[in-house]
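Example record used in the benchmark description.
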Amino acid sequence: MFPAAPYHHFKNKTGLLAAVAVMGFEMLDETQRQATDECDNPGDKLRALGKSYVMFAVNHKVYFHVMFRANNEPLWENTQVMKAAKRSLSHLENTIRELYPDTEEDNGSIVQTATLTCWSMVHGLASLWMDGPLRATESGKLEIEQLINLVLDQSMTHRDL
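Model output (structure tokens):
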């Protein structure tokens, strides 16, 4: 491949990164859809979404990095990136809405806060695992699947989730 070949397809580096990010969000969307296909209740869905998110990050590090940590602000100005990101996040938000069915329109902040809390937890776990600091701790001696279960069990025990 020639170094300039991508620029025959993309206007610039931001365009290339945006295309990679959209592909990553589409892959995450499908991963989460598959993870929740067999779930019977919102609690099981929430657990499946958490596991699938962290495992997606671990198994697709390059996509995850471009999707979230490319330090490229213009990437988030791209309409396609925003649409793909919102679509992948909608699984979590819809599951939270199932957990809080009595939430009125004017009290949507409960859904927003719970969504942000859950997303931050799994995103933080994935980032700490991939970047290495977590592996330097006692907890980091566990396999990633065990660690995910430990964190999800702990968080679901101490909340009404």
